[in-house]
Design brief:
- This protein is 44% helix and 23% strand.
- It is elongated and about 60 Å long.
- Bound molecules: S-adenosylmethionine.
- S-adenosylmethionine (SAM) binds next to strand 2 and strand 4.
């Protein structure tokens, strides 16, 4: 992967960035996403935020090598602190982290999101918890995508401001993904079903029975079976 040819995962994220957006890519690493979007003229301005020195230096190097330093500002900052009012950011991408870390980053600085119209989030794990946080914090899901790359399955969740009634099913599976039931979606939940059945068996064999966990796993296993079998 480089800024000319994104991974399928980041390409999917890029596909949800509105034309002419002013983007903050938080946890940008090499800044491949903002560089790609700038070179393809999809965005007009970007912040590449990084909290770790090494990736921050890589992002700076990439942006300078591509001659894009006037259009992409690389900042060493924790989460949304990378955004300044004069950036007039309207779109935020956070990709390649756990869902919990993504929700912590958003939760730490809600004021920074007041003028942001769209969040495009790609959690590697913990999608359900992230959907729950989004749902409880005034965001509604406008699109979702699921894809497979190098044996790994990724979800992309796109939200804008607004209320949405999401039941436990929709939080777990994703409201759009569970309607669409793509081949990758079925594959993901077949794998999850096997994992959960294995864990449930172990839980039931444990000396001290954790009834709450057993009930949760049993419930989810029933839901998954109903949805995909
Ligand atoms: N977004 C890129 C992608 O999807 O390919 C890079 C993903 S990389 C696995 C995650 C990056 O997020 C790391 O470079 C890490 O330093 C950065 N990161 C983690 N927590 C962060 C935070 N609170 N603020 C900014 N960057 C963060």
């Amino acid at each position: 992967m480089n800024s000319e040819k994104l991974s399928k995962r980041l390409e999917t994220v890029a596909g949800f960035v509105p034309q002419n957006a002013r983007l903050a890519d938080i946890g940008s690493d090499h800044a491949y996403l903002p560089v790609y979007l700038t070179k393809t003229k999809q965005i007009s301005y970007a912040i590449a935020g990084e909290v770790v020195k090494g990736p921050f230096e890589s992002a700076k190097k990439e942006v300078e090598a591509q001659g894009l330093a006037s259009k992409i500002k690389v900042r060493l900052a924790d989460g949304l602190a990378a955004i300044q009012p004069e950036d007039e950011i309207d779109t935020v991408t956070i990709a390649g982290m756990g869902g919990q870390l993504i929700s912590e980053i958003l939760n730490a600085d809600l004021e920074q999101l007041i003028n942001v119209k769209r969040l495009i989030l790609q959690p590697n794990v913990g999608e359900c918890g992230l959907r729950r946080w989004l749902n409880q914090n005034g965001y509604h899901i406008v699109a979702e995508s699921i894809l497979q790359e190098h044996q790994k399955i990724y979800e992309v969740i796109v939200v804008e401001k607004g209320q949405q009634a999401l039941n436990e099913h929709a939080l777990l599976f994703g409201p759009f993904l569970m309607q669409e039931k793509s081949t990758v979606f079925i594959k993901k939940w077949q794998q999850e079903l096997e994992n959960k059945e294995r864990v449930l068996k172990k839980l039931k064999q444990a000396k001290q029975l954790n009834q709450e966990k057993v009930a949760q796993f049993s419930k989810e296993i029933t839901w998954i079976r109903k949805l995909i079998i």
